[in-house]
C-alpha cells in the first residue's frame, strides 16, 4: 500500500513564524486587559484550554510535529456552532487573532498560531438527510467515509485518513474517485460559517453566492470559520483498486507512458503514479496506482494499454475489487487496521498512526506531458545526493475527467485545464539534526526549481508552500482578484489573517 503518511507535511522549519502568519500580539479592543478565558469557559459548552491546564499539552499540537514549537494562547474546542461564534466575538473583543483547525494538516502551519486556535475536532458528526450528506467541520476523512459508506454513499475524500473535511474541501479536495465525481468542493451544496464579526450564517448558491463561490477552492481560513458542510453525495458500492510496480530500470519509460495514459483514461478511472526512494542504500520504487468505478472486467484492457505503453513487464501487480470502505483504508495505509485504529494517538483510544515528522511538500500542475529531458531531470533530482535516512517521493495525480469539466471561473478552484498534479515530498525523523532538516528543505527547493521549464506555474493550494512567492497566481490564477473582492466585503478589517490569506 502507498502509506503516503510517511511523506506528507510541509514547510521550512526556520520560517515557522512566517509560515503561520500569526501576529505575536494583537491590539486589544477591551481596554488592554488580558483575555478572560474563564469567562469564555462559562459562555460555551466546549473546552477552553490554556497553558498550564492538564489537557493543553495533548490538545495544542497540530498533526505536523514540526510546528510543535508554536504554543497558542488558548485552544477552544466548541461543541456547537454557536460556540464558535461566541469564541470569535470574544477573541475580537480582546484583540486575539484566531485560526481554525479541522484536521490540523495545514502544510504551512496555518492551523496553529500564537492566538486562539478553534479546534473543531469535537464537532465531527456525519449524517444523511433528504439526500444530502451533512458533516460537522471536524469530521476526519476515514470517519466520514465509514458513516456515508454505511448508507451506500460517499463524497470525494483525500488519501490521508485523518485529514479534516474543512481544509480538504475549502482548498478543492481531490481524491480517488474524483475523475468521475469531481472535487469535494464541486459536490458542496452549502455551509454554515462564522464571519469575522461573529455572525453565524448559512451560505449557498442562493444565500451570499459570491462567498459560496469563494469557499469552493479559495483556501481555508480567509473568509471565516466554517462549522458545517452539506454535500451532494454519490453512490458507493464495490470498487477496484490497483498498484502496479515496475523495476527501477524502467522508471523513465513508466513516467513517460503514465502521463500519456492517466489524464486521457476514461473518467471512471482515477489514476496516480508514485516514485519514491527510502534510502540511498535501497533501489528506488516506481508504481502506478488507481481506482476504477466501472465493471472490474472493463478495467483489463485499460491496464493492458498502460503495459503496452511502458514496454516493460511489471514486477508486481496488486489488483482487487473491494467494498468502498476497504478502498479508503487501503489508500490510507490502514488495510490491517480498524477504522478506530486508523487515527493518530489521542484522536481515538486505540489510534495507531504516527504524527508526521520533519517533512516538506511542494507541488506543480502541468498542462503538457514532460518530454524525455524533463523526465530525466526529474528522476536525477529525486536521487541526487540523498543522505541516509531521508525519504523522498514524487506523487503524480491525473486530472481530466470531472475535474476539468467546469471552466476555471465556475468556482474559486482555477486548475481546470491541467493534465496532472505533481507533489514533491521529503521527510526525516524528528530526531534529525538541524543540518539534516535543512537538507530536506533544500532538496525541495532544488527539485522544484529543476521543473520550472515544464511546469504550468499553477500549484495546489492545499499543499501550502511557505517558500512560494507568487502564491496568489499559482494557487488562484485569474480568480484571485475576485477573491480579494469577496475578502473585502466579508472581512474588511482582515481579522482572519495569515501568510497566505486572501488579500495579502
Walk me through the structure.
The protein contains 15 helices and 18 strands. It is α+β, with helices and mostly antiparallel strands. The strands form four sheets. Strands 15-12-14-13-17-18-16 form a seven-stranded antiparallel β-sheet. The chain has a five-stranded antiparallel β-sheet with strand order 5-6-10-8-9. The chain has helices at residues 16-20, 37-43, 56-59, 81-94, 141-149, 165-170, 178-181, 209-215, 251-261, 296-310, 324-331, 372-383, 434-450, 471-476, 480-490; strands at residues 47-49, 74-77, 98-101, 116-119, 126-129, 132-136, 153-154, 188-194, 200-203, 225-231, 234-235, 238-246, 269-277, 285-292, 316-323, 358-366, 391-398, 420-428. Helix content is 27%, strand content 21%. The two termini are 40 Å apart. It comes from Phytohabitans aurantiacus. Residues 67-236 form the FAD-binding PCMH-type domain. Keywords: FAD, Flavoprotein, Oxidoreductase, Signal. Its cofactor is FAD. It holds the Pfam family FAD_binding_4.
Our measurement of the CA-to-CA distance between the termini, rounded to an integer number of angstroms, reads 40 Å
By helix and strand content, what is the structural category?
alpha+beta
Give the amount of beta strand, in percent.
Answer: 15-25%
Mean pLDDT: 92
Family: Belongs to the oxygen-dependent FAD-linked oxidoreductase family.
Keywords: FAD, Flavoprotein, Oxidoreductase, Signal
Signal peptide: 1-24
Protein name: FAD-binding PCMH-type domain-containing protein
Give the helices and strands, then pairings.
Layout: H1 16-20, H2 37-43, E1 47-49, H3 56-59, E2 74-77, H4 81-94, E3 98-101, E4 116-119, E5 126-129, E6 132-136, H5 141-149, E7 153-154, H6 165-170, H7 178-181, E8 188-194, E9 200-203, H8 209-215, E10 225-231, E11 234-235, E12 238-246, H9 251-261, E13 269-277, E14 285-292, H10 296-310, E15 316-323, H11 324-331, E16 358-366, H12 372-383, E17 391-398, E18 420-428, H13 434-450, H14 471-476, H15 480-490
Parallel strand pairs: 2-4, 3-4
Antiparallel strand pairs: 1-2, 5-6, 6-10, 7-11, 8-9, 8-10, 12-14, 12-15, 13-14, 13-17, 16-18, 17-18
